[in-house]
């Protein structure tokens, strides 16, 4: 599923791969979705499952590091304008694939 941000296509799997590779020590699973936004069309957002429990300060720091990783590795339309959300788990379909619609519901609340 593609995200359309600023009239450009964003491939969620590309951002997920970069973030998992860079933050493997902290992240167990991740899903990037597009949240409806009047300015961007769909704003890329990351739902992140942590490897270990972190303090509020550590969460804020990791969130900024995740955003910085995307900023350093991606074009302006690939930035996480929708934010970073820490979740307990990434919903899966019966076949084991990421249920992006369910993730979007979690993040869009």
UniProtKB/TrEMBL annotation:
Record SUPFAM superfamilies: Acetyl-CoA synthetase-like
Q: Name one Pfam family in it.
A: AMP-binding_C
Give the source's domain of life in one word.
Eukaryota
One of the record's GO molecular function terms:
CoA-ligase activity
- Domain (AMP-binding enzyme C-terminal): residue spans on this chain: 24-97
Tell me the protein's name.
Answer: Putative acyl-coa synthetase
Record the organism.
Answer: Amblyomma sculptum
